[in-house]
Amino acid sequence: METLRTMSLFAAVAHHGSLSAAGRKLGLSPASVSRQITALEEQLGARLLNRTSRSMTLTSTGEIYLRHAENILHQIEEMQVEVSQREQQPSGLLRVHSRLLVGTLVLMPSLPRFLQAYPQISVELAMSNHAIDLAERNVDVDVRIGKLTESALIARRLATSERVVCAAPSYLAERPPILAPADLAAQNCLTYRLSMGRAVWRFAAADGQTTEVPVTGSFTTDNGPALHAAALAGLGIVLMPDWSVREDIRAGRLVRLLPGHRASHLEFENGVFAVYQRSRHLSARVRVFIDFLVETFRAAER
């Protein structure tokens, strides 16, 4: 502890530019500050300060010592804040934004458990399929789907997000079997509108060979839950994130097609991410919510 106090004293001297100013800040006399800095230099066997009657500057060794000392002091402060927050009951308003599909199928069913576990937290949930500026919207956590772009934000991966082709048994019962991606060209494919252009589904076989299949159908939407509902109703074949249809496939409400291929609208590398602003101190309510999301997606994969 004595070493840490001396580090803190030296940092104060360096930042205030004088022994007397640092002493006033810390409630010490200039003589006491001088003695402690001298003792530190003797302990290290190096001069840290160039001192004259009119000025005080850091030596090159003093600059190195200051850089390391500040890093150590900062880490200790971070540790103390994190430990302290873990002992506090998380509380306050938590603002969350989510894409429609993950918000409807994952967040809404699990939120009651979160709110019961943390009764002092209230959640304000907004859902849309548009990218948002977290700072501008004052959002604490944004749940995003897809390929994460480079950003100044911090992201935690909640799940992979492989796309799967599937359809209801009632749709498949009246049609020829689908054995290859090319067979989809003759099927009623329900599509998610990414642009005004023609819908194309991409496939990658086990050997890495890729195939692009233009698909058409009787229903197109920019709403993931609507596409999910249309597939369950037997209207046609859909391309959906695996986590969104996992329970439907297990229960037999949907049948997975072409299991030997990876499928995608655009990119094969996708995921679900909890994204939040870079902050010196992560609030307790944000921390427990992200931990809750991680556990929710982990449980769904079992």
Keywords:
302 residues, 10 helices, Arc Repressor Mutant, subunit A, three-stranded antiparallel sheet, D-Maltodextrin-Binding Protein, domain 2, alpha+beta, single chain, elongated, five-stranded mixed sheet
Summarize the structure.
The chain is of the alpha+beta class. The protein contains 10 helices and 15 strands.
Instruction: Assess the beta-strand content as a share of residues.
Output: 15-25%
- Overall form: elongated
* Helical run tally: 10
Gross CATH architecture of the largest domain:
3-Layer(aba) Sandwich
**Helix-strand category:** alpha+beta
Instruction: Give unreliable regions as ranges.
Output: none
Strand order of the largest sheet: 4-3-5-15-6
The major pleated sheet works out as: 5 strands, mixed
Let me know the CATH homologous superfamily of the largest domain.
Answer: Periplasmic binding protein-like II
Number of strands: 15
CATH topology name of the largest domain? D-Maltodextrin-Binding Protein, domain 2
Can you give a write-up of this model?
- The protein has 3 domains: 2-87, Winged helix-like DNA-binding domain superfamily/Winged helix DNA-binding domain (Arc Repressor Mutant, subunit A, Orthogonal Bundle), CATH 1.10.10; 92-161 and 270-301, 3-Layer(aba) Sandwich (D-Maltodextrin-Binding Protein, domain 2); 163-264, 3-Layer(aba) Sandwich (D-Maltodextrin-Binding Protein, domain 2), CATH 3.40.190.290.
- Helix 2 packs across helix 3 and helix 5 (100-117) packs across helix 10 (284-301).
- The relative contact order is 0.14.
- The chain has a 5-stranded mixed β-sheet with strand order 4-3-5-15-6, with helices on one face. Strands 12-7-13 form a 3-stranded antiparallel β-sheet. A 3-stranded antiparallel β-sheet has the order 10-9-14, with no helix packed on it.
- The protein contains 10 helices and 15 strands.
- Helix 5 links the parallel strand 3 (92-98) and strand 4.
- The chain is 43% helix and 23% strand.
- The two termini are 47 Å apart.
- With 302 residues, it is α+β, with helices and mostly antiparallel strands.
